[in-house]
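Usage example:
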Amino acid sequence: MSSFSEPVIAPRIGTGRGLRRLLHPVTPGLWLSVAILIVVILWAVAPGLWTGYNPVEGQSGNQLQSPSAAHWLGTDELGRDQLARLIHGARYSLSGALTAVGVGLLVGTLIGLVAGATGGRTDTVIMRLVDVLLAIPSLLLALSFIIILGFGHIQAAIAVGITSIAAFARLARSEVVSVRRREYVEAAFGSGGTFLGVVWRHVLPNSLNSVLAYAAVQFGWAILQISTLGFLGYGAPPPTPEWGLMIAEGRNYMTTSWWLTIFPGLFVIVVVLAANRVGRALRRN
Amino acid sequence: MATSLTLKNIVTKLGQGLFVLWAAFTISFVLLQIMPGDAILVRFMDGDMGLTPDAIASIRTFYGADEPFLVQYFQTIMAYLTGNFGNSVISGMPVAQEIMVNLPRTALLAGLGFTGGVTLALIIAVLATLPGFRWIRNLFQAAPALLASVPVFWLGILLIQIFSFRLGLISVIAPGPWERLILPVATLAVPIAAPIAQILLRNIDAFSVQPFAYVARAKGASQRYVLLRHVARNAVLPVLTIAGVTFGELLAGAVVTETVFGLNGLGRLAERSVRNQDAAVLQAVVLIAAFGYVVVNFIVDMLYPLIDPRLRKPQGGNA
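Running the assembly step on the lines above writes:
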């Protein structure tokens, strides 16, 4: 039928620099997502600026208050302001997701780079092993590492990061393999570049773009996984205001104090949605 | 239906599956039995237990921890091949026994969850193609992103609260054997339905404008006939691939779902084994997951040629 393709109009790249160009085209939803992420980052950096309440010590006689003007999102069973806990908890979600994505990105890219750049038998063996990691559900793989590393916030984050290594390695390898065939890489080898030198100066930087974009997409997923481990009790111990742990604690009061479970869950959803939205925009460009 | 799956093809796929299983065993063995060091020493050296060095030595002999690890490795492989998954360090029970008790429960939950998820996805996809249901399509093209962002444990808690406590539809105290599965199955099904529905919708859109669909319509076929006979068959293929990948999600989902709903099963077993640092149990669960992944993907590979004649190798003139 109408198989004539539309004339391709090159996307007009705005003259604005940096973030704006990376996120082009900027829709209202994307603006909102960026705004949400900025607010959450500010919460993580300076929670004291956003709330005067103590996230760990409660006020007696103030337990299980429903949302009010004084406590916008209510208080928990120890009389702690829930909004304060959520604001202080942003630090755990963000630092955990950063750690997880960092581990996956670094180790995965390294593995993919070695496999893709050396090629041949090394490549086959490495990638076969990477495929085996994909056969184990990521949560079970994360649990296996938690048994070794022990419970804790950083341990859980590292475990989540390890489970994403396989995906990063596959992506990095496919990029490296395609970059290696380019003429400028051939030229660099031809003009006497050493193997490591060419890989470091030409192959790695040119393979990195899509790997970094994937890292952005992984960020929301990591927040979700870390909250799951927190919920199961393998992450930060109480009284840490980690969002997943807060849901687990609030669950016991669900029938009478719904706000203790509902709000942390909504916070996770909104931040993950925003991170995914921004991640996909970065990936597109 | 005669397929020309060559024997060689099947044997290669089986070989790949066995390799994955062996490698998964080796990786999990190194992770869970070697890297943690001597779990038994750590566990029983605790002064409070008041065990004599002799007693500890005999415990270590019982668990085979006194052997060098290459010996342990081969012993464990041989034991696994005969269906002996070792003993739980916590309960002292054979792991195989705990697995056998819990496997059917999780298989039922996961099977129902998967069926529910696929059914839900199909219903959404078919509804979205009907005229007048355009909004469903618009909604669901946005919904997968939303559903994928919802923590599964939170969804489960919410469902219990709404359907059991607020609406009183599902009894919390002593529910029937099927009644108690409704909410867990829904919790498992919703997140896997989202990506499947999304892919179905995208494929139906793509295939509805393919020349073969226009030709069929031009020859007088009804919209529904074209959809079912021509479009659906093509659209379902990629869904099969997703189904293979989704299997792992189901087991991971079982860990969370069984914990939230207080159901016994493999997921709960895994959750408890982590809490108790019971590596032998976790290794068995990990390997069952890998085994399931291999089997499901093998079946999916075998099903492709059955569904898509183009993937059958032409054999003489009767391809």
